[in-house]
Amino acid sequence: MELYSNLSTTGALTFSSKALVNKMLSFTDIEHAELIVELGGGDGSITQGIIERLSPDSELLVFEINRSFCDAMKKQFPMPNVRIICDSAENLDQYLKGRKVDYVLSSLPFSLISKEATDQILNHTKNSLKEKGKFIQICYSYLLKKLFGKYFSNIEVKFTMRNLPPAFVMICH
């Protein structure tokens, strides 16, 4: 029910399917990553996919602004290398403290987020990535490619019908 009562912050009518999560994560090498960030943890469906691949020596930071989603994820993922952060992705840099990230995985509803917040999130994301790091975004509009193009010079777009609604995976680096 939380999903529907907070559509403006979740940005979706359904959570990401396992097929979509697997498609998103197929463009990563989570097993060998040191630091991964997830923006918009939601119900934890992407988080679960990350954790299934996560090395015990790796660290995962999950940003989520919805308190009930945060509380549920803290119970669901009590691992010492997983940190659920109940704060806006706009504050990403405050939690990284200068550390660089292998992957930023996101399902944030950028079309519903203010331009100012979007700029701050994407700037912090770009600046936080390692040289070969990737920002990977699940979205439902191809038009977001233009937005991401302001921050990233290389964007690959993949599409999957195996989600409701069908979705794009944008791999930015």
UniProtKB/TrEMBL annotation:
Query: What organism is the protein native to?
Result: Algoriphagus boritolerans DSM 17298 = JCM 18970
User: In the record, what terms sit under GO molecular function?
Assistant: methyltransferase activity
Transmembrane segments annotated in the record for this chain: none
Is the Transferase keyword given for this protein?
A: yes
The protein's superkingdom reads: Bacteria
- Every copy of the Methyltransferase domain together lies at 36-133
Q: Which keywords describe this protein according to UniProt?
A: Methyltransferase, Transferase
**What Pfam family is a match, any one?**
Methyltransf_25
* Claim: tRNA-binding is one of the keywords in the record: no
Its Gene Ontology biological processes?
A: methylation
- Under which name does UniProt file this protein? Phospholipid N-methyltransferase
